[in-house]
Amino acid sequence: MLEIFVIGYCIYFLVNIYTSFMQIGYIKSAKELQPIILEEDKYKVAGNYAIEKEKLAIFSTFYDFIIFMAWISFGLSALDSVVATESSILKAVIFINLFIAINWILTLPFSIYQTFKLDKKYGFSNMTASLYVKDTIKSLALFLIFGSIVIAVVAFIVANFSNWWIWGFVFIFAVIILINMLYPVIRDKMFDKFEKLKDSELEAKIEKLLEEVGFKSSGIFSVDASKRDNRLNAYFGGLGSTKRVVLFDTLVQKLTHNELLAVLGHELGHFKNGDILKNIGIMGVVMFVFFAIFGNLPDEIFLGAGINNEAYGIIAIFLLFSPILSYFLMPIISLISRHNEYAADEFGSNLQSKEDLVNALLKLANENKSFPLSHPLYIFFYYSHPPLVERFKELDYNVYNHGDEALKAKDIERELKHGV
């Protein structure tokens, strides 16, 4: 039975690698064409960054495959022999913490390379070694404290309830909702510096926009995101009484008031269209399916991996194999998400104006060096937002006109098909 799961992981691995290679080939051809959306000097840079990032992803995928095979072949059984305690709850806490810690240590070089080499090379990362260490220590402390509590509760449920996977799902789903509520508060207290917006004129405009839509928040904040990264972003964080508008300081610096209001109008479109509740519902359904599958696995799978069908073994198998299900479910979820993004764009452009939203998206794309073209297969698996070209098309902005040079969509498509 374990062999079926391993074959599933191999298929996931091969599809993942194939998609990355197709994306690299596509971008190599696309970046040689007439620039669209991005400024000419940033178009090739964005393409080069996308290619380098995808090459890193390929190496990471191969590396993860080796680690996965090591865990299945001998790693889990070896760790099981080390963690010797008769308490099922304590064993689950120690085993899973060690399992996650070993995986984290093994994959740490990729995180360091991404942050300090690749992202710095392309002008994104402002991370210092001291800040990276501080962030890591804080994250580990949070996980060791709260993660251990969650693991212990799940282990208790497994040991004391026959249909444990139902109650386990209820508990984990509640934890995720709680995390979403507390996320901006945790970020404020431990990682970022949240400040009330200093631009009183902008604050008044945002409050008027929120009031117009009926969005109640606990405040409008600017966060010092630039100490880590130069990318532009904004989000509505928290749920219920913890809801707040959070603007990256980089966004406030780069966008005009009207452009920023258009971006917030897009986010408010998600609120007005009920996308937040829809996403919570979808997440709940997916999680329930996961718990139903991993809560009813036969003993043969655990015996094949050299561990017992107990809480620690169930959680470990869940962590190893859930990426497969997630990967092949994501296209469906992303399809729904892309539909919601179009609706949010429409809402935001009506709330402010199409011109303001287009200008904001153009600045976001240029500042974040987001390459505007991707292979259809890559879009299918990874894009939770529609490609920029498609978003602009819906906003009636012709990305193919550059002064006297008219570059039609069909010409791009023809050249790409010829080049890939």
Please provide the ordered H/E string of secondary-structure elements: HHHHHEHEEEHHHHHHHHEEH
> Can you tell me the overall shape?
globular
As for the number of domains, it is: 1
Largest sheet geometry? 4 strands, mixed
The separation of the N and C termini measures 39 Å
**Quantity of strands, as a count:** 6
The fraction of residues in strands falls at under 5%
- In which order are the strands of the major sheet placed? 1-2-4-3
Q: Count the helices. How many?
A: 15
Pick out the low-confidence regions. 402-416
Query: pLDDT average, as an integer?
Result: 88
Explain what you see:
With 420 residues, this protein is mainly α. Helices cover 74% and strands 5% of the residues. It contains 15 helices and six strands. It has helices at residues 2-30, 40-82, 88-121, 129-160, 164-191, 200-213, 249-254, 257-272, 275-294, 299-305, 311-351, 354-367, 376-382, 388-394, 409-419, and strands spanning 194-196, 220-223, 234-237, 244-248, 401-402, 405-406. The strands form two sheets. The chain has a four-stranded mixed sheet, with helices on both faces. A hairpin with a 2-residue loop joins strand 5 and strand 6 (405-406). Helix 3 packs antiparallel against helix 4, helix 6 (200-213) packs parallel to helix 8 (257-272) and helix 8 packs across helix 12. It is globular. The model is unreliable at 402-416 (pLDDT under 50).
